[in-house]
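To illustrate the input format used throughout this study, we show a single complete record. The first block contains the structure-token representation of the backbone; no residue identities are included at this stage. The design step must infer an amino acid for every position from geometry alone.
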């Protein structure tokens, strides 16, 4: 017997595959009929399939009135974007209808007089089986249509790179999303992998929690890592400082900040850098100031080191998030940790805000640790300003960053710390040579490929993430949820105005969000949504949050 989740997975693959073909062909070719007898256009075929889903699942199974012109579906044409938006809406309704269906019971409404379907009395389960039959059949037809249209376009000299909308083109270039003939490789491939995001949840749960992406890895990174493995070249690395030189050049070119040469150290990750800086710049009992809410390992590291957390509260206003520096004056910390862009709110601090932090650092003689790992995930028109580039801050600031967030390589541990303070640099120089360990050759190579060869992939990624970000913003606004559009990151911080919404959403909708309580008890009504996934999976995530799951483990007839 097939479960509802399995049914939705396979039906979704067919529907998403067709939507992916239409998106990839774009406005110029999706409405084109190839030169083959009786052929439809991909646009018309997808329109027909949406009509099937609405009429059968929405009408016959769920009992909603459906006004359908079946003949007009096969002649439909037009711009791609509205059709894809309709596809997302139909897909969300279909998901809810399947979860609410009673497979063994009769249809909710009788078929119309001109019924064109199986010639037998149908149950709701049989009707849903026919929906899948139609989707699978037409998905295969659309793959043939696409191949014919692409071949004809090639004969006409149409460049493949010029096809489709910006978002479709972006998705098509990202490994792991990229169309292999048609559609997107589904993120569910990661359930069989080694990453925590998909492996730590139950098989019927969609993960939108831990901060990495479902979107694959840039081809240059794969090529560089594969070349090392193909050479079986896993000995001690040559020129370990090369990745530091790449970091310094990137800071100059991308952000207009010239790091001091020879002061960049390669470490495993940002948490290691934080722990090293805490131990070497403060004593047990000293205060460490940090914007709150914050990435949970940061306050945990501060407390476990025996230091006192001095929270800088993030404050929600009608126009966005800001912060209050009053706690610093009261508690006089020794270390200021500036996470910019800020996680989880997605704020990119303005020049004025950064200057206020600079003034506090100077007034109280603070060392500053600037975590800037999300700097490559800033959306226009916002701009990232390295804290160390502010007047007077170069010698006071440790800048920590990594390619892992923006290029999806968290499993290849490599981070960099630029050490501005002379006293800290001296302490580090006096430590045993291998005290802090060193990232492996694959992490270094991946980081260098990310920062020197993967610019096009990154630009396409940002196009896709912006579209997903805006989708979440619209969804939250439609539901009256307190949410500010993030200025950076692929994380949305949403106030559901209920206790432990992530727990309720996991129970009812089978979606794993990051609970607000992980960021501190005052944030128990919040949850963090990771939207770095394919648009279809994001729609499924938001649909499940909107429509609580009911009896999702109930079975449908095999093949439905």
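Output of the design step:
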């Amino acid at each position: 017997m097939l479960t509802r989740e399995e049914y939705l997975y396979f039906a979704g693959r067919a529907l998403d595959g067709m939507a992916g073909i239409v998106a990839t062909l774009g406005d110029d070719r999706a409405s084109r009929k190839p030169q083959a007898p009786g052929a439809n256009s991909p646009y018309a075929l997808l329109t027909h399939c949406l009509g099937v889903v609405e009429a059968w699942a929405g009408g016959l199974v769920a009992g909603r009135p459906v006004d359908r012109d079946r003949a007009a579906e096969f002649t439909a044409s037009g711009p791609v974007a509205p059709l894809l938006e309709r596809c997302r809406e139909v897909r969300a309704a279909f998901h809810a209808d399947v979860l609410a269906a009673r497979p063994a019971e009769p249809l909710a409404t009788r078929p119309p007089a001109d019924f064109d379907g199986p010639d037998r009395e149908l149950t709701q389960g049989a009707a849903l089986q026919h929906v899948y039959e139609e989707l699978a059949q037409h998905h295969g037809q659309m793959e043939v249509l696409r191949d014919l249209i692409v071949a004809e376009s090639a004969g006409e000299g149409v460049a493949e790179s010029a096809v489709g909308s910006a978002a479709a083109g972006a998705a098509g270039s990202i490994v792991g999303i990229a169309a292999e003939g048609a559609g997107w490789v589904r993120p569910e491939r990661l359930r069989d992998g080694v990453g925590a995001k998909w492996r730590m949840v139950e098989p019927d749960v969609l993960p939108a929690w831990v901060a990495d992406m479902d979107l694959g890895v840039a081809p240059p990174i794969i090529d560089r890592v594969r070349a090392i493995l193909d050479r079986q070249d896993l000995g001690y690395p040559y020129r370990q400082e090369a990745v530091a030189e790449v970091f310094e050049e990137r800071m100059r070119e991308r952000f207009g900040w010239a790091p001091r040469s020879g002061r960049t150290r390669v470490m495993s990750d940002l948490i290691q850098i934080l722990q090293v800086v805490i131990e070497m710049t403060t004593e047990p009992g000293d205060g460490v100031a940090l914007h709150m809410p914050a990435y949970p390992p940061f306050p945990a590291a501060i407390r476990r080191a025996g230091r006192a957390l001095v929270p800088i509260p993030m404050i929600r206003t009608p126009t966005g998030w800001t912060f209050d520096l009053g706690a610093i004056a009261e508690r006089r910390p020794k270390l200021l940790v500036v996470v910019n862009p800020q996680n989880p709110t997605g704020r990119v601090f303005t020049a004025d805000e950064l200057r206020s932090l600079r003034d506090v650092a100077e007034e109280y003689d603070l060392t500053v640790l600037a975590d800037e790992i999300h700097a490559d995930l800033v959306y226009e028109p916002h701009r990232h300003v390295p804290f160390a580039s502010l007047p007077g801050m170069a010698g006071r600031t440790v800048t920590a960053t990594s390619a892992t967030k923006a290029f999806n390589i968290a499993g290849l541990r490599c981070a960099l710390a630029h050490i501005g303070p002379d006293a800290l640099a001296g302490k580090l120089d006096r430590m045993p040579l291998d005290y802090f360990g060193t990232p492996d050759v694959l992490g270094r190579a991946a980081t260098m490929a990310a920062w020197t060869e993967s610019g096009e992939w990154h630009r396409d990624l940002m196009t896709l993430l912006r579209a997903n970000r805006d989708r979440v913003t619209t969804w939250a606004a439609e539901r009256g949820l307190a949410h500010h559009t993030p200025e950076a990151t692929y994380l949305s911080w949403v106030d559901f105005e209920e206790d432990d919404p992530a727990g309720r959403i996991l129970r009812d909708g089978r979606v794993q969000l990051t609970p607000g309580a992980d960021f501190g008890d005052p944030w128990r009504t919040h949850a963090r949504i990771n939207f770095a996934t394919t648009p279809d999976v994001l729609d499924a995530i938001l649909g499940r949050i909107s429509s609580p799951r009911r009896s999702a483990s109930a079975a449908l007839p095999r093949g439905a």
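Structural context for interpreting the output: Confidence is low (pLDDT under 50) at residues 157-185, 549-560. The chain has two domains: 1-186+534-560, 222-453.
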